[in-house]
Design goal:
148 residues, two-stranded antiparallel sheet
């Protein structure tokens, strides 16, 4: 599941992505409610699990059977993110084990969210996050209990 914040503070959209176990309303709408401020504008496709979001948000819905864009109501930004992820999986990684999927999502979200940074800036940001931390082989290969 992915959430895209359009035109953030620096003018660029950012994404949050996570692996979900199902597509039920309590899962998808629950993730939206945990990650989006009440009263914010939320744009989705017409999937039934998003039907009750209008209780807490200004909810715009686009029915892809009719059209893909209606003014500001569209999902093309998050669809762009998914296309980039699919291209990375098919072209670079070729095969992804399901229990590592959240790691690939995190990596692609990092790439997407730092796409305007230079390679040096991106590397420095990443290096600051891992400096002084140890990751053992056992931790790396363990089956995650909860995706990050």
């Amino acid at each position: 599941m992915g959430l895209l914040d359009r035109h953030g503070p620096d003018g660029h959209s950012t994404v949050r992505a996570t692996v979900v176990n199902d597509r039920r309303r309590r899962t998808l709408a629950g993730n939206v409610r945990r990650n989006v401020a009440k009263g914010a504008q939320v744009m989705t496709d017409d999937f039934v699990s998003y039907n009750d979001l209008n209780r807490d948000f200004i909810h715009g819905v686009i029915d892809h059977a009719e059209k893909y864009v209606d003014g500001m109501i569209h999902t093309t930004g998050i669809e762009n993110f998914w296309a980039l992820l699919k291209r990375a999986i098919k072209g670079t990684y070729v095969s992804v084990e399901p229990f590592h999927l959240f790691r690939y999502l995190d990596e692609e979200a990092f790439r997407f969210n730092t796409r305007k940074a230079s390679d040096g800036d991106r590397f420095e940001r990443l290096a600051r996050k891992v400096t002084g931390k140890r990751l053992s082989y056992r931790e790396l290969t363990a089956t995650p209990t909860t995706p990050a």
